[in-house]
Amino acid sequence: MATVRDLKEKAKEAFVDDNFELAADLYSQALDLDPSSADLYADRAQANIKVASFTEAVADASRAIELDPSMSKAYLRKGIACMKLEEYQTAKLALEAGLKLAEGDSRFTKLIEECKERIAEEAISLQTVLPDASSFPASVSNVSVAKVGQHRRNPINRK
């Protein structure tokens, strides 16, 4: 029977050989034997990023952070995966937390700046997509939010 150490070594070899699916599978097998290893979750997160399984990568990186909140690489991987999912606010938060643990690491600062740019772009595109309230007729813009969802009788069919 393979040990956690054996599986981790094989996973690293597979990763170096660009066989990321095998690496993820081997990390999964190792996690079956040692489900409390933050390193294994962080490493599987990296393999999942490489195979474009970004949701799984976020979950793995988050679990690694739960197990070891001081692991900067887990924050980096969560940030990268969130960026791939276009979740820039969440990515920025993860990257900022990781930067506090790895001060001066330019990977974090570069990605944080990219998140800020994407967030600003999203805000600009929302402004161009969403109409200004002044463009609505007065009858629409004066509707009370409290009345949304309330049922009223049709005034034409009053009895």
UniProtKB/TrEMBL annotation:
One MF term in the entry's GO annotations: protein-folding chaperone binding
* SMART domains in alphabetical order: TPR
Gene3D superfamilies associated with the record: Tetratricopeptide repeat domain
Its ancestry begins with: Eukaryota, Viridiplantae, Streptophyta, Embryophyta, Tracheophyta
Q: What is this protein called?
A: Protein SGT1-like protein
State the TPR repeat positions: 38-71
Which InterPro entries is this protein grouped with?
A: Sgt1-like, TPR-like_helical_dom_sf, TPR_rpt
> Origin organism of this chain?
Iris pallida (Sweet iris)
According to its UniProt record, what is one Pfam family this protein matches?
A: TPR_8
* PROSITE patterns noted in UniProt: TPR
Q: Which keywords are on file for this protein?
A: TPR repeat
